Amino acid sequence: MTPFLTRPIAHRAFHDLAAGRPENSRAAISAAIAAGYAIEIDIQISADGRAMVFHDYDLGRLTPETGAIGQRPADELSAIPLKGGDEGIPTLREVLALVAGRAPLLIEIKDQDGALGADVGPLEQAVAEELAGYAGAVALMSFNPHSVAALAEAAPDLPRGITTCGYAAEHFPLLPESTRAHLRGIPDFERVGASFISHAAADLDHPRVHELKARGVPVLCWTIRTEEAENHARRFADNITFEGYAAAHPPA
Fold first, then answer.
1. DSSP string covering 27-88, please?
2. 108 within some domain
3. Nearest to 117 by CA among 70, 150, 72, 82
4. How many domains is the chain built from?
5. DSSP 113
6. Is the pLDDT of residue 252 over 90?
7. 114-169 pLDDT, tens per residue?
8. Would 160 be classed as within a structural domain?
């Protein structure tokens, strides 16, 4: 995990719409590489089982199209322009070829179950297949612990972690309180063989986070948007995931 602790991590790459760099775009990834940052990207699955670099389930916020990304094949998705840029939705294969080991790559697998449940597998397998033979620094993570367990089977040699938070009801309206309460305690960390967490910055004081930190587990945090918030988060977190400003590189 060392490469992911020494450079600030650009959230959805070093995106800036005013500069023509949409989130999770090749332009934003290239800018992150040039700035010396690590890179966080999100993965959804296409209708034909390809790993696509895209955050949302629906195309509407980030492209001129609407509808679920999972209902379109990869070649069609690649032709849909990202708002604010001049390129289509990239595949993970294209991003790996672009990065080519020049920056640590933190890959978040988006939940496909719909309720952070056990209906997972195809996306994790697709990601593992793309990463086979990739020589750069890579770590995998997901909010869904079942997804992290699937990654343990599909890519056992790659570091994997759990994306975590306080699971406030307004942010997870489809999850019952019993499920949210269960996940708040990060109970699956040991079961899935996780080696790190990426936790919401606003909830870093959670006792379970402190427990893991005391055991030497690396704690990343998200999403930092100001230098002031970064300074506060770094009092506890080992590294930050940031957007909206140019994070300074910590002194060696």
1. HHHHHHHHHT-EEEEEEEE-TTS-EEE-S-SBSTTTSS--SBGGGS-HHHHHTSBPTTSSSB
2. yes
3. 150
4. 1
5. S
6. no
7. 999 999 999 999 999 999 999 999 999 999 999 999 999 999 999 999 999 999 99
8. yes
